[in-house]
């Protein structure tokens, strides 16, 4: 079954064509980074407008790359939430209209379920291509960690109903900022550019992770919940009113003059050693917390497989630490490639395929949800 996936929950307009939930024929992502860059964060109204302009183009491009006509699509999958409501509605209404006009089945997909499927999809593709990688199969603990989410799920196969669907049990989630949001806010504070995660990742390797001791993040209640607001504020207090703040302002002016076209080497040359140390220590504290809680969740659930996805899954230290923990504890840990870690529509098409296969169909009442819990 050839499925067209649509994703527009935040600031990427994406369309993809995926065959049988395991072969990407096309995956097109139109990023809005340039639109939101000067605001240092996603502006919802601008995001919806840009989705409107791009949605038709990305669908056409995906079909062209897949060498398919619209009438050769056999099913459609759209993100129905969680996300920015105006953004979600663009992909959702477009998908509904296409499904109606083509008389093809449509399903709604939870964005977080999509992120989890990104790992499984890519693992299947790698194995089919002959790569010697173990199979990523539930039961597993999944960490979805992005600019909007930091959540842990226990993922299990729903064998009882004979379908290829999974069940998702929420184990923990952030009580305040998502990890990616903390990366982005710290990058904004230090004038490192937007979005901040990848810049911090590149610069952190030049700093000392032990220079600033942020302490362990303590959680009352559920130990598998997360909280990153405290560490973000701790960075703010270390910067405010100090030489680091003056340095950040100088960097901001320099970046503005360069119109944002700055390389990592340029940026590094404009960062003092204490700034690089702060960046490295911040990243280390966030990554340590993410890895420790995820490994604790796997031990608590008694599973040996960990799936990590979402934009922050691109982080090189996070990947290294997870691989180290996996080796020490004999766990299997799986990540998607960077392209499939961040928002894309291939993951939505892959998750939607199994729903379509199980006979699920959305009717005309399908609508967008800003808040849309997965499982539970
Ligand atoms: O999954 P995604 O594209 O969108 C959301 O659903 O939020 O994730 C974007 C987030 C941003 O916060 C970005 O700073 C973060 O992922 N990110 C990273 C890295 N690359 C992207 N965070 C840490 N290290 C990275 N290398
Ligand atoms: Zn996402």
Q: Return the structural class.
A: alpha/beta
Instruction: Record the strand order, biggest sheet.
Output: 3-2-1-4-5
Number of helices, counting only DSSP H or I runs of 4 residues or more: 13
Q: Tally the beta strands.
A: 10
Question: Major beta sheet, specifics?
Answer: 5 strands, mixed
Percent strand: 15-25%
Distance between the termini: 29 Å
CATH architecture of the largest domain: 2-Layer Sandwich
Total tally of structural domains:
2
Percentage of residues in helical conformation: 40-55%
Instruction: Determine and state the CATH class of the largest domain.
Output: Alpha Beta
Order of SSEs, N→C? EEEHHEHEHEEEHHHHHHEHEHH
CATH topology (level 3) name of the largest domain = Nucleotidyltransferase, domain 5
- CATH-assigned homologous superfamily of the largest domain: ATPase, nucleotide binding domain
Residue windows where pLDDT falls under 50 for at least 5 positions: none
Question: What do the pLDDT scores average to?
Answer: 95
Which ligands does the model contain, each kind named once? 5'-O-[(R)-(carboxyoxy)(hydroxy)phosphoryl]adenosine, zinc ion
Shape: globular
- Whole-number radius of gyration? 21 Å
Oligomer: single chain
